[in-house]
Amino acid sequence: MKAVQVTGYGGIDKLELVDISIPTPGKGEVLVKVKACAINNTEIWMREGAYGTGEKSGWRPEGVQFPRIPGSDITGEIVGVGSNVSETVIGKNVVLFPFTSSGIEGYEHISEDMSFIGSEYDGGYAEYVVWPSELCYDMPLSTYEESAVFSVSGLTAWHMVEQIQAKPGETVVVTGANGGVGSLNVQIASNVFESKVIAIVGDMGLEGRMKELGATHVLSYKSPSLADEIMEVNGGPVDSVLDVVGDALFATSISALKNGGKFCISGSAGGQKTELDFRTVYLKHITLYGSVLGTRDEFKRMLDAITAGKIKPVIDRTYPLEKAGEAQTYFKNSGKLGKILLLPEK
């Protein structure tokens, strides 16, 4: 099969298109013919070594074992089974839950042995992948492409919104609102939890599209008085912030929060370190949440909401598998809206 491997930490020159053997499913596993794989920050940061220090970076302390096939947002067709798996699942179209864990129900995502597909396991930048049968779910939509945009970004966004306990009528600020996680934060907070959403973007040309997704107001992060603008359109401080940017908007977010407000972060594309005045946090009674991925029950609730039409796929563009480096480069550009997909059969 064709696959794209990461050969070590570094730039896109570390992505190599190879011909390797099709993997064989083991006990409890299935062989999935990959139809679509969406790109996430996670596989780019894994390649760049951003999840650790020195020579070790990944979801696990020991770092990634190279070569590794990245890719975690995967849809495809089950075409083979290992032992202890019924052949009746062959031909089923599935979306893959993106990690394994021995954590108890509701805590799978924070278990110390949580292992991620595309980092600890070979992932979806390939024509085939093996995965546990119990972690393969029915596709929520009719096409592989549309169903592939939710797994990691959607689960992360859903978990973020549940963590802040978003409620009808509350105001939620969403930073990076045009990205994969951000655009889903907008939809989930507004269309599922019925909160008012203030979407923060760089290109105000996206205002119409963001409002179509559910945003009540759209503001530019380039404004020198963004915190004031947020409070002006809201009529006062906001209830919560869902952030994927990090340092660049941290001070603004904290400033715009009400007393007792909630700040949830799941990304740091705008800077991984920041200045924090603890006095602001405790005097305003702010709750800080770190968030990534989520639970299997949250994944199921998300898929149900997608099937019900409350969350819609947003796709920016697609690339063939052999252009994975070009796709990752484009992914890091600002101004895009939604997900970037790799299609092995394109």
Set out the fold topology.
Layout: E1 2-6, E2 15-19, E3 29-38, H1 41-48, E4 73-81, E5 93-96, E6 99-100, E7 115-116, E8 128-132, E9 136-138, H2 144-147, H3 151-163, E10 171-174, H4 180-192, E11 196-201, H5 207-213, E12 217-220, H6 226-234, E13 238-243, H7 247-256, E14 257-265, H8 278-283, E15 287-290, H9 296-307, E16 315-320, H10 324-331, E17 339-343
Parallel strand pairs: 10-11, 10-13, 11-12, 13-14, 14-15, 16-17
Antiparallel strand pairs: 1-2, 3-4, 3-8, 3-17, 4-5, 5-9, 6-7
Helix pairs in contact: 3-4, 6-7
Overview of this structure, please?
The protein is of the alpha/beta class and 346 residues long. The protein folds into two domains: 2-149 and 313-343, Medium-chain alcohol dehydrogenases, catalytic domain (Quinone Oxidoreductase, Chain A, domain 1); 154-290, Rossmann fold (3-Layer(aba) Sandwich). The chain has helices at residues 41-48, 144-147, 151-163, 180-192, 207-213, 226-234, 247-256, 278-283, 296-307, 324-331; strands at residues 2-6, 15-19, 29-38, 73-81, 93-96, 99-100, 115-116, 128-132, 136-138, 171-174, 196-201, 217-220, 238-243, 257-265, 287-290, 315-320, 339-343. The strands form four sheets. Strands 3, 4, 5, 8, 9, 16 and 17 form a seven-stranded mixed sheet that branches. A six-stranded parallel sheet has the order 12-11-10-13-14-15, sandwiched between helices. It has a two-stranded antiparallel sheet with strand order 1-2. Helix 7 (247-256) links the parallel strand 13 and strand 14 (257-265). The longest helix has 13 residues, at 151-163. The radius of gyration is 20 Å and the shape is globular. Residues 10-342 form the Enoyl reductase (ER) domain. One of its GO terms (molecular function) is NADPH binding.
